[in-house]
Amino acid sequence: MKEYGSGEAMAALAEATAVQAEVAHQRLAFMWAQTVFDQLLEVWSRIEDHETLAYEDKVGAQVGLLQQASTNLWHLQRELARTCRFLKGHQRQLKRLESPEGRAP
């Protein structure tokens, strides 16, 4: 790991804090996705267990549920991909700083 002077260390710490603040919302996104999956599983189970539901109605309900899930998960996938790109860029920046070529003489 690169050794920093006190000013550089403070700047690096401030940047790291800003990066982690930017990606901290991912935990909430994961919790939201878990809630979505739990609800989907609950509704799917109710559809399967519904004895009096006509087969065509059951298939229609399953299709609607999967379409809704796909829409919700598409938004999550976009957010995860955006955050992943952001962190990969930050990771590349860290590697450049750590490499001998990235250090100031």
Compute the separation of the termini in Å. 17 Å
Number of E-type strands = 0
Helical residue percent band: over 70%
**Oligomerization state:** single chain
Short description:
The chain has 105 residues and is mainly alpha-helical.
Word description of this protein:
With 105 residues, this protein is an all-alpha fold. The protein has one domain. The chain contains three helices and no strands. Helix 2 packs antiparallel against helix 3. The two termini are 17 Å apart. The model has no long low-confidence stretch (mean pLDDT 86).
Topology of this protein?
Elements: H1 6-23, H2 25-49, H3 55-98
Helix pairs in contact: 2-3
Features:
83% helix, rod-shaped
